[in-house]
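Q: Is it fine to ask for two folds in a single conversation?
A: Yes, each is treated on its own. Send the first.
Q: Here.
A: Result:
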Amino acid sequence: MLREYVESAATLYRMKLDYLLQCGDLVHEPVSPSSPSSGKKIIEVFGERLTLTNPEARFIYTPGRPLNIGFAIGNFLYQLSGRDDVDMLEYYNPLAMKFSDDGVRLHGAYGPRILHQMDRIIGMLTSSPGSRRAVVTVFDGRIDHIESKDVPCPVSMQVLVRDEHVVMLTSFRSQNLLMVFPYDIFLFTLLHEWIAVHLGLPMGVHIQFCGSLHIYEDEVAMARRIAQSLPLDIPMSSMTRPDGEEMEMVFYIEKQARYYGRGMTNELYSEIRARSLSPYWSGLVRILAAFAESKRRGESALRDPLVLAHAWDAP
């Protein structure tokens, strides 16, 4: 088990891929027939712990596996909005439909499961900072022990306030290290930061536990290339706490960006100029705008790391 404390997600990604390639076991036992990975063999280590000491260094860029920045940001807003429909998420990631059982909604969408719990633990830790009960559950045995294409991989998030910093411990039942981890660490460190800003405290370490950390057998060549590459660290601006009105603006502009990206309106930029957002949330909106422009050009992803690097430059 590799338990190094690493400052950036990009370095952690490369190190864990290298470790998995060296120490992972081939697993070929059958999985649930409804799983999208049914019939595939995996290279796996289990019971892994991954520790990120600077959760703001969440963005992972490697030439061999460049992140879709539009999806990374869109997914964060999708979860914060509490939605479970496929339509919004498919705009950011066309593969979303593959995980829907009925073509309409996603059984395992996190937002409807976690938002009310996050509000409660923020209140709990505000009144009792030393509490060890601030736990958000994602996987729900009452509804998730079923045959579905979309059973949540994350199990829980626990939040602790220690030394006046907000620490988060996440638990995953299963995680594809090569293809999914970069998006998961991006999302869950943003949720970590969301809780921290609502508590008025800085983030501490972000620790993730994995039941099954794996790659598929047919991904080994790509994993080797990335493990031997030099990752690029691109820091994000620090989140600021929005009030309810500002988040309503963000959600409204996100919707307008989707309409623009789908060619349903030409009013994206006038909508952005018409609304005053704080610098952090303006930066996220600029990324949504860049993604919408890429969609108008017929591209399904936005992978240019400079878009993220310059999102918070003064206009």
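Q: Second one now.
A: Result:
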Amino acid sequence: MLSNRYVRTVILSRVLLQLGIWIRNYAVLLYVTELTNNNPIYVSLISVAEFAPIFLFGLIGGTFADRWKPKRTMVWSDLLSALSVVAVLIAVLNNGWIALLIGSFISASLSQFSQPSAMKLFKRHVPGEQLQGVMAMFQTLVAIFTVLGPIIGTFLFIQFGINVSLILTGVFFLGASFILSTLPRDKEEPKSNDAGSFFKELTAGLRYIGANQSLRTLCMTFAAVGLASGLTQPLQIFLVIEKLGLNKQDLQWFVMANGAAMFVGGIAIMGIAKKIKPQLLLTIGLLVAAVCTMGIGASSLIWLTVVLLVISGLFYPCIHGGIQTLIVRNTESSFMGRVSGVITPVFMGMMVMGMFLSGYLKEMFSLLTVYLLSGVLIIVGSLLLSPLLIEKKTTNKRRSAS
């Protein structure tokens, strides 16, 4: 896969981009908590600045990504992110720390244009049989930075402070843009029949998803899994404190164990990706995640919780790789941005809704009840995939008969 110039170049640029994002995120978090004396309102605004663009610009960014050339879009997105960091650094030097939140918002907004463009490049230049392996490679990259990102970001801030952290962020963003600029120039492609005004293309994208059974099914699965993820994500700290009787600082070790397992799982998926259909891979990943989620909620033993987190992490790349492969395979290149711009906000929107409900549900019932509910929702998400599994079996039978 790495022999493919497009895969190699995009992966390398995403490594630099991930470095910049994690350094920036932890520098902003630690700087704001330090400056505001752990004010929860200002700390929560950091999350708003990072997640709000997904809702505001997901579909819009995806629509523009379909109208624009993918390489050029990614180069300019990373370059503008670097320039926004420079502007934020100037503001911070003048004691304008609110600019940190604005800079995070701008950078996250630009990502809504860049991410769909990367999928378009893969759709055009990666053979179909390699797509699943490439998606697993992407998930492995995310897992690596889930483990190393907080460590690198925290170390750099503690050792060198906010200014150096922001300078390094800008350098990494600029480096990502430069690496992408080495790709060949974008080729012209024929526009879809619905090409025209922005709003016409946007509505055409929504109609495209509505008419595509595979994409409709993935949207429903994403909604169920997003809600399930949101229910448990804010409650991880209570697992450590209430169920295991540890200090809240110990949460980082459980997160790192899960991230390390994701890394190993991503490497394993790259090796077997060609042998397993993406819809089956996704279903297996969801069912394992459901069992592990319910087990983690019930466990009061440290070793058992760690084992379940590791198993869950090992199979998580099945979910990510399966979904991304199905999206790319079932979407025409001219609609790739709009499809990504709809499906990702569906997941994030339901996840935020789950986060909002999780605290209330824990107070009304119990921590175990919330984790059991989350597991049931993941099972529902896997059952929603049934049409894809049945359709694939029917297609295979027809091919055998002919």
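Q: Anything structural to flag on that second result?
A: Two points. The chain has 14 helices and no strands. The chain has a mean pLDDT of 80.
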